Amino acid sequence: MNNTYITSFDYQVPIDKIPIAELRQVFIDDFSDHVDDLESPKFQNITLDEIEAVSVYQNYNPGTEVISVIEKVLTDKSDGRELDLIIDYSVVSKLENGLSIGNKIQEQLNARNALVLSVGNGGCLSFMLALKTAQAFMQANDQYKNVLLFSEDHVIGNRYNPGLNVLGDGASAILLQSETDSTMQLVDVECYNMGRLNPVLGVRHDLKGNFKYKEFENKIQPLHYKVIYDLFNKVLRNNSLKIEDIDLVLYQNMSHNDYVGLKSALQLSEDQLHYGKMKGHGHVFGSDIIINMCHSTEQGKLEKAKNIVAISSGAGFSWAVSLIKN
After folding, report:
1. d(CA 78, CA 7)
2. Do both 146 and 237 map to the same domain?
3. pTM score of the predicted model
4. 10 strand-pairing partners
5. Is residue 174 helix, strand or coil?
6. Nearest by Cα to 287 from 154, 192, 187, 186
7. In the chain, which ranges are continuous DSSP H helix?
8. Residue 141 has pLDDT above 80, yes or no
9. For the ranges 62-66, 76-80, 215-219, which has the lowest average pLDDT?
10. Would you tell me how many other CB atoms lie within 10 Å of the CB of residue 144?
11. Is 54 in the same domain as 201?
12. Are residues 79 and 152 in the same domain?
C-alpha cells in the first residue's frame, strides 16, 4: 500500500478588494430580509470587521486564474504529462457549460493520462473530501503516484453572511505523491455528513434563501463543535495520539469568534491553534486550509510541527478532520 505525501502547495487571491463595509451595505439593501431571524445576541454582535476586506476577481474567466498556481506547485516536482489524477475541489465555479474546471486544466497541462474528478458536493469541505479521495486512489492502486488537487472559486451574489463569514475569491493547489523526498505524510482523514441539514446552507449565493440564519443558529451551531470534537478524538485514537501530541491545528477562516469557539471546544493551547489569514481574504471555500498551510509556513510553524491537524466543515452539512505527520 502506497503512502501519500504532500510535495508542494500554494494559493493566490486577486489583487482587487472590496471592503467589508461595502459588502455589508449591499447585504442590507438586497438580502436583509432574514437577518432578523438571528436570535442570539452573540451572533447579532459578530461584526466580522477583523476581515476588513476580501479579494474579488474582475472579468472572471473560469480555469484561467488557478493555472499559475498549479504551475508553481508542479515546478521541479512533476509536469502535467506525469499526472495520474486531477481532482477539482472548486465549490462554486465551473466552466460555462457547467462542467468541472478540471477538464480545462487537463488540456492546459497536457495531462492526457490523468483521470479527472470533481468533488465540490461537500461545499467548503471539498478540499478534505479531495484529500480522502486522493489517498484512497493512491493506496488502492500503484498507478496513482502523482495527484494534483486544485480549486478556483468566484462568488456570484451575496458575500456577507452576518454571524458566519465573508466570502472571498481565490485559487489553490496541492501536489500529492507516493514517491518523493517530502516527509510530510497525509495519514488520516475522517469525515461525517448529516444530509438532513442540507436546506440550511447552500452555494447559490445569488438566492435570498441560500442561507437560513435561524436554522443555522439553532440546528448547525449546537452540533458544530460537538461533531468536530468527536472527529478530532477519533483521529487521535486511530493514530494512538493524545491532544498534547498535536503541534499545530489548522482551521477554516470564518471569523475570530469561530477560532475562539474551536479552541475552547478542543481545549487547545494558544501555541497549538494557528489563527489563519482572514484579513484581506475572508473565507475562500476549500482553499482556506491551503491558505493557512502557506501562512503557517511563512511564520515558521509548519516545518517545525510533527503532528498537524486540519479541520473544516461545509454545507451539506459535513465536517472533516485530517492528520498530517511531518
Report:
1. 10
2. no
3. 0.94
4. 173
5. strand
6. 154
7. 20-30, 41-44, 67-74, 102-109, 126-140, 213-215, 221-238, 256-266, 288-298
8. yes
9. 76-80
10. 23
11. no
12. yes
